[in-house]
Amino acid sequence: MTDVWMLRTGILIAGLLLIAAIYFFGRPRKAGQGRRVEGGRGDEGRRVEPTLGEQLERGLAGDAAQGEAVQAEMELADAAPGSDLGRRTSEEFDKIVTLYIAARAGQVLRGPDIVVAAEKTGLTYGHMNVFHRLVDGRPERGPIFSVANIMKPGSFDMATIQALETPAIAFFLTLPAPVPALDAWEMMLPTAERMTELLDGVLLDEQRNAIGRQRIQYLRDELRAYDRQHEAPPLTRPPRW
């Protein structure tokens, strides 16, 4: 069993779980049924970039899950004209870290409030019609992390933003990023925490549980290990004769 096969299998499983999460958040509610309860448990969603709509469902269902997921993202980008700000410089990725901001029970997150919160936390509206945190002074390096709508097709259409209501938004950090993984996490977490305050929502981890200190520390350790594994090898000095 090769590492590549294991990676593709993992991404396939994660993709199917994300589709279930989109279905859970996006399906119509029955009369009298409330929104999610803070700290409640639901369908599991793994670390998969929530890109976006039917292209994602097709892309993650194939045998070559990783390549097709990227192709789905590119198809969406082609279908959604707009800024190139936040476009990744490479189609290659091997890890995705996700956080959610969910509305409190009986409430929704509203489009105008999301836009204001994104602006206040330094996010830029751009590629795929979602929000991105870019490298200061170097936007061409691509997104450090991005924020999408959990509802299909996942984007924020500014033409209809006044009417937009959603049960949750998703933060996703796709690695490798233009900065070290741990640095990217240390930018994403405070942004998500601040937006949670501004939106009066609930911050959840990738399994949609209320995120706590223990989980945060675990993710920090995991990303620190990722950075160590992906450090550039030291330069080999020529032997002295």
UniProtKB/TrEMBL annotation:
It is a single-pass type I membrane protein. The keyword Lyase does not apply. Residues 35-49 have a biased composition (Basic and acidic residues). SMART domains: ZipA_C (SM00771). It is found in: Cell inner membrane. It holds the Pfam family ZipA_C. InterPro entries: Cell_div_ZipA, ZipA_FtsZ-bd_C, ZipA_FtsZ-bd_C_sf. The chain crosses the membrane at residues 6-26. Its main location: membrane. Residues 93-223 form the ZipA C-terminal FtsZ-binding domain. The keyword Transmembrane applies. One of its GO terms (cellular component) is plasma membrane. SUPFAM superfamilies: Cell-division protein ZipA, C-terminal domain (SSF64383). Keywords: Cell cycle, Cell division, Cell inner membrane, Cell membrane, Membrane, Transmembrane, Transmembrane helix. Residues 31-53 are annotated as: Disordered. GO terms for biological process: division septum assembly; FtsZ-dependent cytokinesis. Interacts with FtsZ via their C-terminal domains. Essential cell division protein that stabilizes the FtsZ protofilaments by cross-linking them and that serves as a cytoplasmic membrane anchor for the Z ring. Also required for the recruitment to the septal ring of downstream cell division proteins. Belongs to the ZipA family. This is Cell division protein ZipA. The lineage of its organism: Bacteria, Pseudomonadati, Pseudomonadota, Gammaproteobacteria, Lysobacterales.
